[in-house]
């Protein structure tokens, strides 16, 4: 970086700093903001003025005395008693001139820095009249962005007051507009007897400089709580379609999975938030968690009907590695639906923090969830075969008899039915099911065994099992594996009865895979970190290895209780 001389001013230093800024992956928004501020014409003008004032402070003249007017008066008296000639008479006439006496008086005022006006004393018998309302005039500069404040009508007084200040907006940056201030005029247009909608329309049409006449709120300035944390959105939101939002322009649209920085929760109904990674510094309104849950509860009846239709068409059930029949899957699907109805969960927001695995931390559990046709097990076996020292699989438990070629603890943990059922009662299984009168399940201890060996455990699990695994101990990273779906081609030739049966079978299988993938995404997308579309086995395994490497290396947003607990 070039060396500046000691005489360089603040303007030159900032100009050089702007030229030295370099893009940084972690500071893109901050550097963009600094570059924009330093490039502002008004900001540079202020820096030049500051530099000139500093030069005046260092080099400006200091007064020789603070009483030039009194000195001029004393000189006039001395001259009157002295010899009388033309020069003396001319000097006395100059000292007596009003404009020269005013100059001396101004000099003394500046020298003494006594700029406060001298007011006459207040009479003792003055009657104090009722105090008038204080008024403040605020001038803001508004470009294309919203003003950053919402208004409402006071139900008791009918006055139009400021309801909230949006963080980072023009009103917030000014520091002059506060919640509770009563609005009287906008650009000399009286707002009395106007509705908030009409006033909002006036403000929306204003560009450039806006002058507001306000009466300060009586209540103390609201204490805004900063740093409310980050939330992962579990639903899509479009403020333009929200009839309840007080100002659609102030709303913040977001998509499911977006990370939101909540900067204010003072309003119980509408929070203020920013999207992480968004260059816009102004906060926007989003529905609060409690308000959104109430709305979802109101819509629950219709949602239940839609879920019921979706559940009838979907194909879920226990782990496909247990090879459940279609009938068994339908029975388990019905049980799952009944469980969901008993424990209704409204998806709004999830508090999150950033997490990166440290070298001494145990590896995160990797959960592979496969829709029908994905054949997750063959991917898992290929990954483990390529690197058995790094990856392993949790050994399932079963009550069936051990076959001749099987070994205890390798293919399965073979246990008695009584022991298995006792472990179910003690919640020692993350998932379990029954197949041909035999019980199968994955125990918590089998997962811990792999993690204690400092290996990465690859678990093939049902989507409904994910919730049981989302703990600070496992910190699961969930990958949804879907088959590459290609609709069966129509046969244009004459079809025999056998060909027709094959076609119907292919079409039925295709629809089953489509519905399975759609159902999992619809019901469990908020629990899934990555979606992998599986084409050929080699390419899919290569993509999975890339994902597994990133889990060990990169930072991720995880539930806050995983880190704080």
TrEMBL record:
Residues 226-296 form the SH3 domain. Residues 302-312, 325-340 have a biased composition (Basic and acidic residues). Keywords: SH3 domain. Residues 137-218 form the PDZ domain. InterPro entries: GK/Ca_channel_bsu, Guanylate_kin-like_dom, Guanylate_kinase_CS, L27_C, L27_dom, L27_dom_sf, MAGUK, P-loop_NTPase. Residues 363-549 form the Guanylate kinase-like domain. Residues 302-340 are annotated as: Disordered. Residues 6-60, 61-118 form the L27 domain. The keyword S-adenosyl-L-methionine does not apply. CDD domains: PDZ_MPP3-MPP4-MPP7-like (cd06799), SH3_MPP (cd11862). This is MAGUK p55 subfamily member 3. The lineage of its organism: Eukaryota, Metazoa, Chordata, Craniata, Vertebrata.
